[in-house]
Design a protein that fits this description.
The protein is elongated and about 90 Å long. The strands form eight sheets. It has an eight-stranded parallel beta barrel with strand order 9-12-15-18-19-20-21-22. A six-stranded antiparallel β-sheet has the order 23-24-25-30-27-28. The chain has a four-stranded antiparallel β-sheet with strand order 1-2-5-4, with no helix packed on it. Helices cover 23% and strands 23% of the residues. By secondary structure, it is an alpha/beta fold. It starts with 31 loop residues before the first helix and ends with a strand. Among the domains are: 125 residues, Immunoglobulin-like; 105 residues, Golgi alpha-mannosidase II (Immunoglobulin-like, Sandwich).
């Protein structure tokens, strides 16, 4: 029998510290076995025991509070139900587990509360609940009792299909979204829309645009809106900025019922120093390291989790499973993985401590990541784990039993950096930087890669993608259409941050809506049509997604024509007779009678041309198609002569 199934059957036998006031209930929710599993770091459902649990005892409904704070002298539950007084509801401590617990009858969902913690030395602090399911709207910081069983899920078909789907062999076009700035209330631009308001609009838009998934910047509670959610305080609390936990469940459910997967960003690498949060929770370095050489991020001013503590590992692992369990999330994109792997990340010599072998690898964090991937994939088949990892660490997306970290997919930060660097060059100079394009195929199949053009590329002075493109106005739009054509035909899954799909001009601002008004212009409509059509072709053509992570799915036709700044290649499906021919021209000079070697002497239909007048291009092309000649070229038995339009990507499909 699973250890988790035994929890309800195991009776508590541990003693309690005597309460200072009459107790409301002496029957603890936490059993000996709960405490044992938590101490061992293997209580995968600790969110069903700690925090504020609605419970019925002796016919009376109330809330069972439980919090881990082993070094506190005393803890009281304070809230709007006791006028925030620390003397009314003192908790009892499980010895030696270090978890404090108290049942308060009569409390219902919506009650606001905190823990008043008397630390060693007599200082008293008020803390939000680390396991709280909901919180007040920032800048208020109280936790809120929530019932996560209210929503009636209607996504059974999606969840059943997800278990058997092989996402690695399926199309994956991810639309990255910050919920607070995708759209705002048109009658009040300073007001966020709610989860329920956004759900139908975002789902309809994703369906029209052909995206398969949405990826949400962190939706866990965070005190500072300007952190975009990456400085999390409430790891178990969906942010109240856009509604309640039930509202967010509705959002996910609505996505699933319409065939859209939901990925959320998850941040186990660091947490902020806000007083109501995890920092020195019981007066000691409980969640973090005491030594700043291990416990503080010099770049972000945040604290690093102490992964060597079983209880901390348990807190984070249980949190990952919580989102998959309670909210039916389809994938977790893990932020800042590189900062977790290296003890000397962004540190100078002498500012970090080596591991027990004298190396720079964070052994405890590595073990944590392996364990996280093992449990997440094992307990929720079909879910995805995605690593934002920017170094050359090997095996990030390889199984743990082969020595890898176990992620499903890794962001290809090398491709992103090299490609954007290349695209920023004036076309006349691109021939001197041709290797910035071709280098990605040297390592393209060493990991299961996703190609990200994320929010990080359009902030902090980097400018919007359209504004990063060189040339006059026509060339800027043509360059962006070319970039998307190249990206969607390059091996790897796809991710595009909101606004990029219609050519937003402004750098992303989390406090404003996207520039939707730009779609009154045909040029911006053209960018939007390109992305929609690329997604349509991408999802319809197995050669663009079935063999993303193996060299059998890609062949160069010509990667050496640096003088003309062109690339030509083939993408193949599992069936080798199913292939596409792709050619890209990275200059504004059209190439007439451009000969390309092809595998077979067939007729090739032009199924996409980013220079089409439909997208705002000059309308040079090869419609409806070209016939191959029995002339050898590029080491192939047949060849075609095409017009390669200026600053354009063309896709040709053989017809038999």
């Amino acid at each position: 029998m699973s250890p988790q199934l035994l929890l309800a059957e195991t009776q508590p036998t541990l003693d309690f510290l005597p309460p200072m006031i009459d107790s409301y209930d002496i029957t603890p929710l936490l059993s000996d076995y709960d405490l044992y599993l938590f101490g061992e770091g293997q209580h995968w459902r600790s969110y069903e025991r700690l925090g504020a649990q609605i419970r019925t005892v002796g016919g009376r409904v109330g809330v069972n509070f439980a919090v881990w704070a082993p070094n506190a002298e005393s803890i009281s539950v304070i809230g709007d139900f006791n006028h925030w007084r620390g003397c009314d509801h003192e908790m009892r401590k499980h010895i030696p587990g270090g978890i404090w617990e108290l049942f308060v009858p009569g409390l219902l969902p919506g009650a606001k509360y905190k823990y008043s913690i008397r630390q060693q030395g007599g200082r008293t602090v008020e803390k939000s609940d680390p396991y709280g399911f909901y919180a007040e709207l920032p800048p208020r910081t109280a936790s809120v009792v929530a019932d996560l069983s209210l929503h009636r899920w209607e996504d059974a078909a999606w969840m059943a299909e997800r278990q058997v789907r092989n996402s690695l062999n399926s199309p994956m076009a991810i639309y990255e979204v910050h919920l607070g700035s995708w759209r705002r209330d048109p009658s009040n631009p300073s007001q966020w829309l709610t989860y329920r308001q956004i759900a139908p609009m975002l789902v309809q838009y994703c369906r029209e645009m052909g995206f398969t998934h949405v990826e949400l910047l962190p939706v866990s509670e965070h005190p500072y809106t300007g952190s975009w959610g990456y400085q999390t305080v409430g790891y178990y609390s969906v942010t109240s900025r856009y509604g309640t936990p039930e509202d967010f469940m509705y959002f996910v459910d609505h996505c699933h019922q319409n065939g859209i997967g939901v990925i959320i960003d998850w941040v186990p690498a660091h947490f902020p120093k806000d007083d109501h949060g995890l920092r020195r929770f019981d007066g000691t370095a409980l969640y973090e390291h005491d030594d700043p050489r291990q416990g503080e991020h010099p770049d972000w001013g945040t604290l690093i989790f102490n992964y060597s503590r079983n209880e901390i590992s348990n807190f984070l692992l249980s949190n990952a499973l919580f989102w998959l369990d309670k909210y039916h999330i389809d994938g977790l994109r893990v932020d800042a993985v590189a900062s977790m792997l290296y003890l000397d990340y962004s540190r100078h010599n002498g500012d970090w401590l080596p591991n027990r072998y004298g190396g720079r690898e964070n052994l405890e964090a590595i073990e944590f990541l392996k364990r996280f991937n093992h449990e997440a994939h094992g307990q929720f088949p079909g879910m995805l784990t995605i690593a934002e990892e920017s170094t050359a660490w090997t095996g990030v997306s390889r199984p743990t039993y082969l020595g890898g970290l176990g992620f499903s997919i890794k962001w290809n930060m090398g491709w992103m950096n090299d490609t954007l660097k290349y695209m920023r060059h004036e076309p006349v100079h691109r021939k001197y930087h041709h290797d910035e394009l071709t280098f990605s195929l040297i390592y393209a199949f060493t990991e299961n890669f996703c190609l990200p053009l994320s929010h990080d590329e359009v902030v902090h002075g980097k400018r919007a993608l359209l504004d990063q493109m060189p040339g006059d106005l026509w060339q800027r739009f043509a360059n962006l259409r070319l970039l998307y054509g190249y990206m969607w035909t390059h091996p790897g899954k796809k991710l595009l941050f909101m606004g990029g799909e219609f050519g937003q001009w402004w750098e992303w601002n989390c406090d404003e809506s996207l520039q939707w008004h730009l779609l009154q212009w045909e040029t911006h409509q053209g960018i939007q049509k390109v992305v929609a059509d690329l997604n349509k072709i991408y999802r319809a053509e197995p050669s663009l997604f079935e063999v993303d992570f193996d060299y059998h799915g890609f062949e160069w036709i010509d990667c050496h024509d640096y003088e003309n700044s062109t690339l030509a290649y083939i993408r193949r499906a599992k069936n080798p007779e199913d292939f596409l021919v792709i050619a890209c021209n990275f200059t504004p000079v059209p190439r007439f009678d451009y000969r390309l070697g092809v595998p077979e002497c067939l007729w090739y239909r032009e199924i996409f041309n980013s220079d089409s007048e439909h997208y705002g291009g000059s309308n040079l092309g090869n419609g409806p198609g070209v016939t191959a000649d029995p002339f050898e070229s590029h080491g192939r038995p047949a060849s075609i002569k095409i017009i390669l339009p200026p600053l354009a990507t063309v896709i040709l499909k053989p017809e038999r």
